[in-house]
Specification:
The chain contains 14 helices and 20 strands. About 35% of the residues lie in helices and about 15% in strands.
């Protein structure tokens, strides 16, 4: 029995919630918010019974809301139950807690992930893995994950509909965060704004080096032995189109596929769209000390757009466009228009936005979900909020009021559907549910990313997805005229960040070096992959053998000798966390 809170505390203007984890029959009743130093009771309320969740087997839950309190200070929650009083760990309520302290921490995580030293030197003259000939200077970039010292624009391309946006998205997020800080007019953000631009331009410079002669970008710099710098061990990577060698010595289709130049280069969905968006954004921001000029950034972005818009099908694994291509291309077109003010890019943005809205399946008049392909609902372990943000980015540049309103209404419908799914059944943490179609064609609703997707055997924790949906919820909340819906969105947005920062059934903060119970990454019984302070781990999943169960494996077991699915840090988690906090109104 314990009270679960956001370990980092709550900002004064945020919705504030704690969850009591106990047993059925505990009969949790009234609670008090107590100022730690003075012992003064600032707030009292009644805990709301929520019950047990699916087959989590983690107890029953009661929810305590103390949102009205905005006085900065250090507090404790005390709850009356049938088994006596329960007290929380102390926590803070303060101003700019997450937007300043945590943005700074996660920003420095990226700085620690920069490729340096012997790896950087090796990458100045790097050959290709496989049959492609030649060498390239592709130094720089951020290591993709704790256990993967590669640099990736995306992966899982063989899955067709599960490409996560990786390095290009991360670079783009830094420029977006800097823009939000500038728009706020808050002078306290001046140093943070500088740090965001510093990291964004570092990423943009690497993307420039990764541009292929075709105009597309190379998909990755791969390191086979992750923790060793062995000459000739690394190279510019490629992806098979129909299977992956990520978890084995050889891809299933290695003998069947002919590896061509396109296997080394990205489509819109496999990182190209976000690389273009990042370069176009870099061209709007002067930052001294970069390796390229603003003019070079925009020229490279335009060249990449021309190549991919005309030839995207040649770079995809299935020879067609899907929703992921379209929302990534929409971000690219929006940023190209903002940087150039050329009508062509506004026209292409309108085209992509229309394609995305045409992929929506309505549920009544007020709700709709996105189909990634006809009849196949979109779901993502990392980027589920991205199509909503892409539509709203387009709405910001659309001059026609009617088209702008139609686009914002589509984004609102998508988030109404998300909140509708979330509200089904016991859900004390406000965790967003997935909807997907299984192999039998049935629509399934579950809490965590499924084990049997087309990306299998890849599955992992959802922390990037949570922050992406938090971002989408805040962005829609800024635009909706429905005050009740706005409140629901902001509560939902905060729930996702609270989960990442400790308000979850394992009482674990997912940010290394902050809060309590940080998970450590082990491999074959050894803790070789040391997580970096400020980085965010993959997070909680469904049960190993029960999709309606729950797991967070923090110690070696007879079955799990490598807990990467839960403990490994990955740059999309950190990128989305930055975006979610940058979107807060300050």
């Amino acid at each position: 029995m314990k009270i679960l809170t956001n370990h980092l505390g709550y900002e004064t203007a945020d919705y504030k919630k704690a969850v009591y984890q106990g047993a059925e029959g505990d009969d949790a009743k009234s609670f008090r918010l107590i100022e730690e130093d003075s012992g003064e009771i600032l707030f009292t309320g009644n805990a709301q019974y929520a019950g047990a969740v699916d087959r989590w087997n983690t107890g029953s839950y009661w929810v305590m809301d103390f949102s009205p309190i905005e006085k900065p200070g250090k507090y404790i929650l005390e709850l009356e139950t049938a088994r006596g009083k329960v007290r929380s760990f102390p926590f803070e309520i303060t101003v700019y807690l997450h937007t300043m302290r945590m943005l700074n921490a996660v920003n420095y995580y990226f700085k620690a992930q920069r490729s340096t030293g012997e790896w950087l030197e090796e990458d100045r003259c790097l050959p290709f893995h496989g049959p492609r000939e030649g060498v390239r200077d592709v130094h720089g970039g951020w290591f993709d994950a704790t256990g993967d010292y590669s640099m990736r624009m995306s992966h899982l391309s063989h899955s067709t509909t599960h490409n996560p946006q990786q390095l290009g998205w991360s670079a783009y997020v830094f420029f977006q965060a800097a823009d939000r800080m500038m728009e706020s007019g808050n002078r306290e953000y001046s140093m943070m704004e500088r740090r965001m631009l510093d990291e964004g331009t570092f990423g943009a410079d690497f993307i420039m080096r990764m541009q292929a002669p075709s105009g597309s970008f190379f998909t990755s710099v791969l390191r086979i032995h992750s923790l060793n710098c062995v000459h000739g061990d690394r190279g510019i990577g490629f992806e098979y189109h129909h299977s992956s060698d990520q978890f084995s010595e050889k891809a299933e289709t290695a003998e069947e596929e002919t590896v061509r130049d396109q296997n080394y280069e990205v489509s819109f969905r496999s990182g190209g769209g976000m690389c273009i968006a990042a370069l176009a954004a870099a061209s709007r921001h002067y930052y001294p000390g970069t390796d390229y000029s603003q003019g070079e950034y925009i020229a490279a972005a335009k060249r990449a757009w021309d190549t991919l818009y005309r030839n995207n099908e040649r770079y995809t694994n299935d020879g067609r466009w899907n929703l992921i291509d379209e929302y990534c291309a929409l971000f690219a077109a929006v940023e190209l228009y903002k940087a150039s003010r050329e009508y062509e890019y506004l026209s292409r943005a309108e085209e992509m936005a229309s394609r995305i809205m045409n992929r929506m399946t309505s549920h009544g008049d007020a709700m709709a979900w996105f189909d990634v392909l006809p009849g196949e609902p979109f779901f993502s372990a990392s980027d589920e909020g991205m199509p909503v943000l892409a539509l709203l980015a387009y709405a910001e540049i659309e001059p026609d009021a009617q088209e702008k309103a139609r686009t914002e209404a589509a984004a609102e419908k998508a988030m109404r559907w998300c909140l509708h799914l979330t509200s089904q059944g016991a859900n004390p943490f406000g965790y967003p549910r997935y909807q997907y179609r299984d192999d039998n064609g049935q629509l399934i609703t579950r809490f965590f990313y499924c084990h049997e997707s087309s990306a299998k055997p890849w599955w992992q924790g959802d922390n990037a997805r949570l922050a992406s949906l938090s971002s989408a919820a805040r962005a829609v909340a800024e635009r909706t005229f429905d005050k009740q819906f706005q409140e629901e969105l902001l509560r939902f947005a905060q729930d996702q960040l609270d989960w990442i920062m400790g308000c979850n059934p394992f009482d674990a903060c997912m940010i290394e070096g902050y809060g309590r119970n940080n998970i450590q990454y082990f491999f074959e019984g050894r803790y070789d992959f040391i997580n970096c302070p400020g980085g965010i781990c993959n997070g909680i999943t469904s049960g190993l053998h029960d999709e309606e169960g729950i797991a967070f494996v923090d110690k070696p077991t007879g079955e799990v000798t490598d807990n990467w699915r839960w403990a490994e840090q990955w740059i999309p988690h950190a990128s989305w966390f930055i975006m979610a906090n940058a979107l807060k109104k300050r």
